Amino acid sequence: MTFVYAFDHEHPKPPMELKDLLGGKGANLAEMTSVLKLPVPPGFTISTDACRAYLADGGWPAGLRDEVDAQVARLEEGMGKRLGDPVDPLLVSVRSGAKFSMPGMMDTVLNLGLNDDSVRGLAAQTNDPRFANDSYRRFIQMYGKIVLDIPAEAFDAVFEEKRKASGADTDADIPAAVLAEVIEAYKAIILRETGKAFPQDPAEQLRGSIEAVFNSWNSPRARAYRRRERIPDDLGTAVNVQTMVFGNRDDRSGTGVGFTRNPATGEAVPYGDFLINAQGEDVVAGIRNTLPLSEMANSFPDIYKELLAIFGRLELHYRDMLDTEFTIDQDKLWMLQTRVGKRTGGAALRLAVAMVNDPTIGLSHEEAVQRVSPEHLDQVLHPQFEKTDAKVLGTGLAASPGAGVGAAYFDADRAADAADAGEKVILVRQETSPEDVHGMAVAEAILTSRGGLVSHAAVVARGWGKPAVCGAESLEIGADSFTTADGTLVREGDMISVDGSTGKVYLGEVPLAEGSVPDEFSTVLEWADTIRAGKLAVRANADTGEDAKRAREFGAEGIGLCRTEHMFLGDRLPVVRRMILADTPEEEEAALAELLEVQRLDFEEVLEAMDGLPVTVRLLDPPLHEFLPSIEELIVLDAKGDLDVPGRALLRAAQRWQEQNPMLGVRGVRLGIIKNGLYKMQVRALLQAAKARKAKGGTPIIEIMIPLIVTYPELDLVRRWVEEEIAAAGVQDEHILIGTMIETPRAAVRGDEIAEAADFFSFGTNDLTQMTFGFSRDDVATILEKYIEEGLLKVDPFETIDQAGVGELVRLGAEGGRSTKPGLKLGVCGEHGGDPTSIGFFYGLGINYVSCSPYRVPIARLSAALAALDAGGPDRTA
Amino acid sequence: MTFVYAFDHEHPKPPMELKDLLGGKGANLAEMTSVLKLPVPPGFTISTDACRAYLADGGWPAGLRDEVDAQVARLEEGMGKRLGDPVDPLLVSVRSGAKFSMPGMMDTVLNLGLNDDSVRGLAAQTNDPRFANDSYRRFIQMYGKIVLDIPAEAFDAVFEEKRKASGADTDADIPAAVLAEVIEAYKAIILRETGKAFPQDPAEQLRGSIEAVFNSWNSPRARAYRRRERIPDDLGTAVNVQTMVFGNRDDRSGTGVGFTRNPATGEAVPYGDFLINAQGEDVVAGIRNTLPLSEMANSFPDIYKELLAIFGRLELHYRDMLDTEFTIDQDKLWMLQTRVGKRTGGAALRLAVAMVNDPTIGLSHEEAVQRVSPEHLDQVLHPQFEKTDAKVLGTGLAASPGAGVGAAYFDADRAADAADAGEKVILVRQETSPEDVHGMAVAEAILTSRGGLVSHAAVVARGWGKPAVCGAESLEIGADSFTTADGTLVREGDMISVDGSTGKVYLGEVPLAEGSVPDEFSTVLEWADTIRAGKLAVRANADTGEDAKRAREFGAEGIGLCRTEHMFLGDRLPVVRRMILADTPEEEEAALAELLEVQRLDFEEVLEAMDGLPVTVRLLDPPLHEFLPSIEELIVLDAKGDLDVPGRALLRAAQRWQEQNPMLGVRGVRLGIIKNGLYKMQVRALLQAAKARKAKGGTPIIEIMIPLIVTYPELDLVRRWVEEEIAAAGVQDEHILIGTMIETPRAAVRGDEIAEAADFFSFGTNDLTQMTFGFSRDDVATILEKYIEEGLLKVDPFETIDQAGVGELVRLGAEGGRSTKPGLKLGVCGEHGGDPTSIGFFYGLGINYVSCSPYRVPIARLSAALAALDAGGPDRTA
After folding, report:
1. Is the CB of B640 less than 8 angstroms away from the CB of A635?
2. Does ipTM come in above 0.90?
3. Is the dihedral of CA B683, B689, B690, B695 positive or negative?
4. Is B269 at the interface with chain A, CB within 8 A?
5. Global pTM?
6. Nearest-angstrom CA–CA distance, A599 and A688
């Protein structure tokens, strides 16, 4: 078995397609080296196979050590240097590189190969003992922390003490001799903490570092990140061992992170951060404030030209916007890494359209659509602030667009606790690190006073579509408050507003405006619509004319779920209660007649907004007690003697309709059958509304949906009622569809039978999930969270459909229904109808349409297109 | 297509096996005629095919009329008489006869063929104008009521008036001339009510009567009866047209109902009721008090001998106890009907054993077991009264054994209402009729003052296993009270006690003793055990040592479900609350340690009672708030300022643990995972109990069951905890089974995966039914009742498993589990484990054991044997 591949290994297929094996970084290093022949420091990649074998067995798989030794030998031979050589030593970096990028999540060791001998060789070679000692002390510190698990503070304290004692202002000012003292002190720390001396043998250093990278795959923060990003735990990471080059050698050296275009806006200009005389980590960590990439035109004009030429070649080769890391080592440019660049939603849309329009790249519409993710759309649909004259506390880099409002928290743990308690929080830090991700995950927005556009905070925030302002230097951020330039003090818990699109930070709560959407948004969605046309339709869940209008604007092709219970609330509540409390059939009918009037008007508005498109109306679903006041409040009033006669009647009614488990109680069609005037009234109101619309020249298309069916006879009975109303209204020739929700496991299992009385099925995956798991959404939030945390569940099944369980029932229901009626129209109207992963799954089951909240419609349109592109297959829309 | 078969038609297989086609009555008439050559009045049967075709099309199927005409012609030819003949007319009866007996549920027309002409012929032939006129008036009345749907009251009023006017005391005293007036008055009623004259054409009379019988299949009372008896609605009825013979011709005539043995006790003596000069209906209707069958030895000695000889032939032929109807027409015996006789549970057991022991009948053990139904066992397990000196109100016939206590109700509607309101009722009537069945169905017992052992009340009560005392003549039963011989007045609502085993009726509530069980009970169950051995085991649900002991006495082969929640109630409640309210882990642990002690003792008792048999312990299942007081009570106290500090703490805890839908909330394994010391404590207590039992020389066999699993990882996690406890206890070599309940739809669908961590599955069909239907048992009782009433559901799915829905999930779970582990042990521990129909279904799925309440164990043992006999197949017990 081969575990190790040199960057210049000739793979039978393009290395950039070998990310499973080489990891993302390794694959791209190999692509740059073996295909593009770019200046990449030589090295080799230890494959993910090796990592998985190591993690499974808890030790090095057979043969790996020999392969590594052979590759090191080849590297030494090629470079003409040897690891640990006291004259001209080879130094290498050891970096993780998983299939999916996990920025900052895993470990890196630099300057490996330095020891008490080779540090002298480095000093001699560079004629810079200070540089050599600094490199060595950095290596020991990193090795101590990462491989030997010694807290960083131990080293930091020594370093700070020595720096102060030497009278140096910055790290760069510390003399070589003092650094030599630091080295000895570091080695003493290692001996003290581990009982063993710092290893002088570079081979041992290398093996330790490789193991540390393997092990970092399972570090808590890496696991947490993968959970958040839904990256499988069993992939493992590759390890890249690469010859070191030094951006921190002198002022003709430097390092930078460059995007071939602007990842925040999509603008076609190179973009990035750059530091002179620094190592790459310094740029990303945000410890030093960086220069813009364009500054290189002044400081390194030739190299800048070379870099831009490389950017061009990369874009043409990858046909995408790239993110690169590079280092200049004494006027020589080295490409250390490239990958397809992460981008904001707006940038994704603009880049997709631009690359279709750019003939040298010439993306197809299909490719362009695939360059945009549902999360990108979600981002551009994010709200922005309204115009405001709120006090500006400061301005930083607009690192991740969108607007966030919340209470300032200065510590990730406290932020997470506050968010758990239901508070909206903004995480405020000088800079963020992987240790802060749990606080970042729950924050509405992130604010830092240090670090640039590719700092940890910025990268993570953009990846998650969270607003972020970074490097707001005018803010003095402390442990539990910050002070602005004008001396305003903002304490923990104070409300602030963060505008990641402008970089401004405001005091207090600035009102949110609707998201601002780039022009390319509709272009891409039109392409998506063409791709999914005839394959998977997108409707909206909308209960009012206003919602329906918005849904239509967002591109909904109809309403898949018009709930009628909202029509029973508000000023109708007294009438609804009269119906419930009615002592005689006459009183009940009178109340129903009143409700009919208002329902008719509601329906007319919805039908007007959706004129010409289908509107699926679900007859009343919730249990009656939802329309009654809380028993607990009433009995407290009663106990205090404060309840009047109507109040006591209400209490009695509430008690009569009270249920132990309302979710499994008398609701849906069961209620319709007990209060059997109700559904007839609703159908009559709907038919009257349709008639009124037609009288006004409209084209109403109605579909009637019966909820909570468990048996064929139930549906058959109610279907007959509906047909009687249709006949009574004289519109029996209009082919009004009568269908049912499939939302109980029984209905799913008996789809074949139930289909006999149904013109369509709409899977109510919320209820189906509740009953399939036995999870009441209201009650199991805590346990769900714990289950996800403990890995007992991979995702919240209410967010993304549980394919193996609930999905299996949907499949059985769909199959059963279609076995009876091959052309049966199938929809999904649970919240999963707006979830991209779930949409892909539904597409695979042959569902005809999904229905989701109006705001999710664009996301569903894109997801449907992506599913269609992914799956191909014939036209399946009824 | 042949629709009509003469009784003497030579069928290719024994007619008694053709009940599907000929109905029960028709099949047995054909058997008696064509095979046994008994004296049966000739006639023919219109098949159930014809009825189904008629009901489906709403009219006579093609060819039926011609076939009927041809059979009538044959009958006329054979008898040498013609329908409607003015000289020597043929008269026929038209009777329903469905596949399953539905006594009194459907319609009968007698004396058909009489008209204004033939009545004279009948008078001349019998030389008895009074008899002829009486027959004619009876026919018109019956035809009016049954075929023309005219209320009986109209006729009754005229008749009563004429009788009084004539000065006659009884019907038999009314002179022929007065009866002639009655006839004219009856014809006038028909003309007035229907606008058409009473049909004089016998062919028209016959067609009308046949249609009426067809239609009576769908009468509300027939439908209600079928629902109660679980007879399918789509069978239809056959119609038997038979030459009339007259038991009411004179004193050398008579009619009776005879059983070949005693159906109440099983005693081997002929048994029945007999009336001289009467029609059969008079015996069954209970209008006249009957003579015992044995009285025939005096009044009709030769015919009695002939009858007993026929009884003997019938028993040898059918190899069972028979129920017959016969008529003597002027000293000639005619057999009108026979069928296998209904019997009480005690009789069924005794008859089964007696017929095995009787070499002339020589039943096999298998046949004997099949002669006993689960309902029979249920009956003998019915409670009896303890010895009492309660006041005896009167004594009647011990018509159906068992004891019932309740409030006296004198009207079926009011009895049904009271029962709906939760009251236990006794239905008290002079006599019952099919109009009373809804009141009989809900009654604890039935009491009548008129009618014999085969009266409507007696037959129905025995069929349903309900206690009944009939013909308690000393009671004067009125519309809303009765008076005893000594003048005691019992009003509606007063409590009485009815002993159907002794015939005594008591004032007030007599305490119940346990059921008295005949010796044959254990004989039959031993045969049943032999039949099911190695096929389907029977365990009990038992939570205490006492329950376990009882279960073992009833033949349980282990415990399939030992719930541990009961161990958390009573005097343990304060400790459980301390655990819930604990502020610190230490307090929680202390409470758990206390609980461990008491649980260990509980477990020891159970293990002792079940020594040597497996005991499946389910870890705690219900949500924690079940152990807290009601929130509503606490907030009322709080509102009144009556809550102390610990009370307020309890209120807060109750609020914290309160759930919207506890059934779908934090319970079962979810609770185990949140309060993760709980399950470990329970396992430890169980292991300690087993150890203590072993120290005492016992042989404890424990199985540990995890409730409410939805995913494999949940079970895997808890399984590891349990294994740790087992290892810590040092008993890891004892192969303690660790399994799970399959009670969520998701677990059923993912059985393959979950089986990887399970040594056994136990289907919790109660919860599975709740979640599959979305029916909370606590909440949907009303709707369930309505659904069954409306035919939306055939049976209560909590009583008999819903095979098509819930059963399908059980099937999927069983299949999935066995696909992973072919030998996986499968059990059922929901209440369906004690339901005979469900047991048959589970047997078909390859379930290894059912577990039910101790009292149901004998029924489950028998049901398992019946399922095995029904299905055959190989040994399947693990």
Report:
1. no
2. no
3. positive
4. no
5. 0.80
6. 10
